[in-house]
Amino acid sequence: MGKLWEKGIKADEDIVSFTVGKDYILDQRLVKYDCYGSIAHAEMLNKIGILSNKEKDAIVGTLNEIINLSEEGDFKILPQDEDCHTKIENYLTEKLGKTGEKIHTARSRNDQVVTALRLYYKDELNKIKELAKNFLDSLRSLSDRYRDVKIPGFTHTRKAMVTNIKVWCDSFIEGLLDDMDMVNAVIYMIDQSPLGTGAGFGIPVLKIDRKFTQKMLHFERIQNNPIYVQNSRGKFEGEIVSVLSMIFFDINKFASDVIILSEDDIKIIAIPDKFTTGSSMMPQKKNPDVFEIARANYAKVVSLEMRLKMLPSNLISGYHRDLQLTKEAIFEAFDITENTLKTISKVMKELKINRKNAEKFVTEELSATQKAYELVEKGIPFREAYRIVAKNLSTPSHKTPS
């Protein structure tokens, strides 16, 4: 079978290879979502009289067969297949003949692709919510186990005031809860059915039922304007990865704290040896590589966000092949986020706080601000109290800069 867009002229193979890029590889994860969209579309075509009951049942049965083959790893997309959409339609046509050829009535590959992607995005974002919940639970557990342990708080990467493990853990818990609000907001934004908008300018002549397919695919609502369906490509992906980068903003800071607090001369946090890596040269090393990679992944996701926001720039309204390149970036961002959350949560369950070392690092000068406020309570103006405490500190290096 040929490409869906061929019209009797054989395309140059180098051009086909260049334009297909990695789509045949990337689309492997979209097979079931494209089938879900096609099942809903077939049911709708049956409802408006384009497909008979027999034709609809044959198409739906074959699409379910493809889903099962895909789940078992037996539905492979090859370079000559171009993408999952071509592979699926060709499979239907090979098996069902003219009936299979009817599936593309009243749709374009443009709205077909966006439908599959939106369904995939919703699943991935809900998966990330579940993984973030596991991370939150591990933070709450650490907070509960060591809530009373005092530790130094830092400003300017220098010890500043006394805090405790509960306050430290809760800072990341609150941050992640805000992140989840942002995830929910972006889910609401993308939860719009694009199916039935065709190439970006609607479906002529046929009176399709977009509300029917929206309900079948469990979208919250319809994305009404057909041009905006295509204009939202890249925009929605950029917003999704922006939210993922905010999750990594908190992971990055948490990882940096763990790295410094587990440092050999501090050892307030103990990372189990099985979660550390060694050196090829230095036998004594136990490196916090897992937290370093997690920290670095923030930059990686931010760079993917920038790629997604730059790719659609300067394009006029409508679909352009540039948008195909958004797929790899958002897939990679999902993979990095999910893998990092899984790994961090696993390590978190076995992190320990060394109470003795924590007490050792909560030194006298960390109570300087507290002592100043105790003088304020006795009626001494704050600035005077500040100077009194500063003068009484044992060494000049402990003075707080004004």
For the structure shown, list the relevant keywords.
402 residues, Fumarase C, Chain B, domain 1, mainly alpha, 3 domains, Fumarase C, Chain A, domain 2, 6 strands
How many runs of DSSP E, i.e. beta strands? 6
Enumerate how many helices there are, as a single number.
16
User: What is the CATH class name of the largest domain?
Assistant: Mainly Alpha
Number of domains: 3
| Helix residue percentage | 55-70%
Gross morphology = elongated
Mean pLDDT: 92
In CATH, the homologous superfamily of the largest domain goes by the name: Fumarase/aspartase (Central domain)
Descriptive overview:
It is built from 16 helices and six strands. The chain has 402 residues and is mainly alpha-helical. Residues 398-402 have low confidence and may be disordered. 60% of the residues lie in helices and 5% in strands. A two-stranded antiparallel ribbon has the order 1-2. It is elongated, with a radius of gyration of 28 Å. The chain has helices spanning 13-20, 23-26, 31-47, 53-71, 84-96, 98-101, 109-146, 165-190, 210-216, 226-231, 235-261, 289-310, 326-348, 355-361, 368-377, 382-392, and strands at 150-155, 158-164, 192-193, 221-222, 269-270, 352-353. Helix 3 crosses helix 9 (210-216), helix 7 runs parallel beside helix 13 and helix 11 (235-261) packs parallel to helix 13 (326-348). It folds into three domains: 13-105, Fumarase C, Chain B, domain 1 (Orthogonal Bundle), CATH 1.10.275; 110-360, Fumarase C, Chain A, domain 2 (Up-down Bundle), CATH 1.20.200; 363-398, no CATH class.
